[in-house]
Write a sequence for this structure.
């Protein structure tokens, strides 16, 4: 029996503080603000430590949604999971994707046979600065992933296609706070800490989904890149101290008119994987090589990008890691964003940088959500 | 009768001053330094005004080749056309493409029926700073394109698939020199002048190939973007005051085991055009949708990229023109480079930024050279 | 008779959205929120077109102050003039300076003889995109400056020491809106429009204060750099379409325990001018060359910085205008910020970039506010 | 008895490859190319890993000087110490400082009583990638400093006022080479390795000059910032694998018409130290506070700049370490360059970034060379 349904809406934004598109859909009755469970967004900052577009977007969304859900702005974030990924380099286009969930009672069509899109959320406790990027973060994240799967009514890890995590980073203040307690953080660099936090969080997903076996400890983070999750997508932000976990997958308990699938890019130019992810949900690229599946429509693509740590891609040297002017995460988002946008026909896709332990080194997961024909 | 042949070799570089790959091939007898007519390179600078990797690469190549061709280093550039395009953002990989040309007498196979790759070169006189970006530059460039076509033994403009031009830019010194003569340059901005010079040069190609009709004057440059060439690729550099023109096309007089074709990207995410360019020379993308043509091998792709001037791509807003941290040319190269690399399977492709009047607004030409089976 | 008083408080911020310092002072009774007339801030964005830290700061301040002044957040800006200048490069430290004004009745000491700090505000009507950077903006700004002087009870232009203006810029949308009406904006470049808007606004100040004579027209903006105001400081922001004018000077009607003075930096390394501005309000640099004036204390310095348009400073070439990686405004703020911070002993100074028509080419005004001993 | 003399000439450059100024002085007989021992330059790259302006400048200088000293270009560097420091942010102006040394026999004036400028050079062996940033580099550097002091005929460490070192950095290739030998480098980050190499080299100076006592080991590098040299200035470059050491000080054996002195900036805004360094060689700032010493003339200032590692300067937060768009070394050079240029009246000063263990945390050495009246 289908018990819940999920709706997914992609909305273009005119700036990090722009909530007009969302408010318009609420006013038109197309989105019920009380049913919003998560908003994933691409904002146009640098995606680095000093990217304030993420917290600005969250602040604007919180202020806008607060009156609708009877909460003060600062408490909205406790109810809705906001994941703002900074960086819309190249052809990428700023936007938000709004996920709602509610009881499916009154809209189940009797003939659904396949699993459909389902979403589950959970979060960890706040971390101490010295816990970030280490095994505590891995362990707590794994626990939260399991909780989110349960909430999504997904039993088989194979049905999990994308796990988005928002995780904290270190700042000078936080490093000093740890030092004041006599503890050393995993790095003193704010920028460097983002990689550690993303990496540990991704390893937490891999542990939860059984993608890696055996003990994981501190030493594996950012070193054992052969250990990774094929569906993890983690973003670090200055605005929180805990991990927020969003599990996206397909479930028999969902009556949603959406399906999600994924593939793994083995490197940043893996067009085959992007095409495979599209095909997994019945979509194809528009080069005329295949028949259109008219009843399917792309909602969004979610992918991770990174510069391959060994400095080359299929034998050709890249310069992303040795550029002092543009951070490698910006380079990688721009390139992978260019490929995915070209294959999907739109720049309004979610490509996020920093894929440590998210897919193989230099690669990353790519998931696609398709809307099914609703006649 | 086939009278000339052309060879094209792509060589990876370890830095802008690295000539070891080229010297190695010369020493192995695979490249005859006396037959080199042009070298197109991607160097790893920012591609902007202060990108010194271009002149450094030219300086290193000149010093390396001088002893082989009995010229002092500073005169090598008069014999070999060097076009270094700065900027290998994202997955793009620094490399040079060496074009040689010689008499085909001793290697013509009797059964060639199609036209084959041919190359021709010419250059304009030095421009005054106040001529850059204006009709004088357009007119002189058109004249040089015609001369280069003749040298390549190409009669039909339809057989021209790529026209690479290196053109000058303005610096503070040059602007002041014009002012001292009582003349005003088209802009005072060094960075801005690169666009004017590229645009006027591209319009020169369009005039020469009959792609646009009627009078072209100063006012059209960077304003009438509906006027463009489908095969022009122009790069501005601080190191010269004239235009260098390289025409690449197919000719019945060539015995080269290469073919060139092109398509026009209508925007920066036009995967269809990239695939079309590949197919035009018998190549396909590796997604399993078509049979491999085993006898064909990609040598290189040459493309232009730019941020669409109207601020959006297929209706989605891009942020390239409003980013104060990364110039729009870097954004565009990274994105288009990501797409082309993904479709061709390598980052060692020539994607150059700033496509003013080179293809439609926001788009640009994409040419592919394939090596034919030589068995 | 002294009729008003002004208070000036500099508050460090931990990020663009941080209002905790201001709220703390309000809670301690040190700042009466109802008396706040203007807040000038330095935020840590790039200071360019896509610097969202400015609007984020304004949004956060508006939300924080709204309950205290019985206005909804979006109307706070109509009562309090917020001027956020983006860019705290180098040693510059993010902070806000809060100006309050109220009736001086109950705190006038009978023995004041000199003029004291006074503040006046005014704003223009909204501009059309095509009016920005042109004579309409100059004329309307001049009118607003006169109004603000009157409000500050300053009669003699010599008593005006700093005129801060916040002005609009062009975006792709705004350029298109003008085009849709059949009108051409002064430039299509968002970044370029910031200079035009700052320049026209500064010329408006010069007109109002009688610093330039004769007709000013469109052609003078960004061309006749010999026309300038010695006290204008203008910043462009994406968040408004009108000019906000804040006049700071000394007036006999003020009972404030502050004095303001200024000097004009003739170039970006004019330490003499900085020292002169400090001395004008009884302050000195701490190199031991003069006696301390114990009764005076620096509140803040307000200065403009720019790369000299001719490409050199006192005969030495600078690279600010030819750097494609870092905009010249960021370079200039970092350098002038380094000098002023070194001479004043703190990085929490207000140095704003883009000094077109604000001081001589390559230079800019530098004003200092000192607090007098209050025993 | 004075046995040697030194000449110091500062020459402006028009670009990293510009050697015209130097060649002009050689042709005019003002510089004897055979007597050149060292050239310190500021080039206009980003000063980071991918700053190719340094090696381009060395390449151009080597090619230009080779014919004069009867060496092939690639061997010139073995005779002349080239130290190119990348990054001329803000008001800094690209230039080179040429040091020559020869027998003083024919120009000693009999009445010299004070010590005069002397220069000595030495270099270490090539390092393995895994030795960079560790105690081996410290120890070998200390040995080279002692050798350079001996060559400069400086006995008392107090007479050493500036020790410039050029040191290697890690690249992806070098990290992999070490890994292939089973060894781990101190970091995998190319950018990060620059700090390690600079830090270890500076500690080597401190050891040689007795500035620190006790054992120094690997763990102290980039951690014990209370250990530092007050006269070390170290720059990392991709173009070498050994350390080049240049000692500048005053010696009784020198007959040079120059004197050098130094002070230590305790932070990046320490104007007092800059003024002190100028005064130590008889110079003053031009604010009218002291009498000019007509017989003295500034030749150049040599200083190091860095972002204070604790994130603040005299209690005010700076954003240099948390900016993903501009590296902290660029921020710091721009700011300190602004201060020193303002106090010395010229942007053609040598301010180099990355002051790890060079002066106290956030500070750095500042040395000044003055030319004495030669009448």
């Amino acid at each position: 029996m289908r018990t819940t349904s999920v709706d997914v809406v992609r909305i273009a934004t005119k700036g990090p503080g722009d909530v007009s598109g969302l408010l318009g859909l609420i006013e038109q009755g197309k989105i019920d603000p009380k049913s919003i469970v998560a908003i994933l967004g691409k904002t146009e900052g640098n995606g680095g430590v000093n990217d304030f577009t993420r917290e600005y977007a969250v602040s604007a969304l919180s202020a806008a949604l607060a009156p609708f859900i009877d909460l003060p702005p600062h408490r909205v974030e406790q109810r809705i999971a906001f994941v703002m990924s900074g960086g819309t380099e190249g052809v990428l286009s700023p936007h938000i994707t709004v996920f709602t969930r509610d009881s499916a009672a009154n809209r189940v069509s009797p003939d659904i046979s396949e699993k459909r899109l389902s979403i589950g959320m959970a979060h960890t406790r706040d971390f101490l600065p010295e816990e970030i990027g280490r095994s505590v973060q891995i362990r707590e994240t794994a626990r939260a992933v399991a909780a989110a799967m349960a909430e999504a009514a997904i039993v088989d890890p194979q049905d999990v296609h994308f796990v988005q995590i928002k995780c904290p980073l270190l700042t000078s203040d936080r490093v000093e706070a740890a030092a004041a307690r006599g503890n050393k953080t995993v790095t003193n660099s704010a920028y460097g800490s983002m990689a550690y936090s993303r990496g540990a969080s991704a390893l937490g997903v891999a542990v939860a989904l059984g993608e890696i076996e055996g003990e994981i400890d501190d030493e594996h983070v950012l070193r054992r890149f052969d250990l990774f999750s094929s569906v993890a997508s983690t973003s670090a932000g200055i605005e929180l101290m805990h991990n927020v976990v969003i599990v996206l997958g397909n479930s028999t308990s969902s009556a949603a008119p959406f399906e999600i699938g994924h593939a793994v890019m083995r490197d940043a130019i893996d067009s085959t994987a992007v095409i495979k992810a599209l095909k997994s949900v019945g979509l194809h690229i528009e080069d005329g090589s295949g028949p259109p599946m008219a009843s399917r429509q792309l909602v969004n693509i979610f992918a991770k990008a990174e510069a391959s740590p060994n400095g080359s891609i299929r034998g050709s040297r890249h310069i992303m890691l040795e550029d002092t002017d543009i951070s490698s995460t910006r380079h990688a988002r721009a390139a992978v964003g260019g490929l995915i946008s070209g294959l999907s026909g739109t720049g309004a896709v979610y490509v996020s940088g920093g894929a440590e332990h998210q897919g193989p080194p230099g690669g990353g997961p790519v998931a696609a959500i398709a809307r099914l024909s609703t006649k």
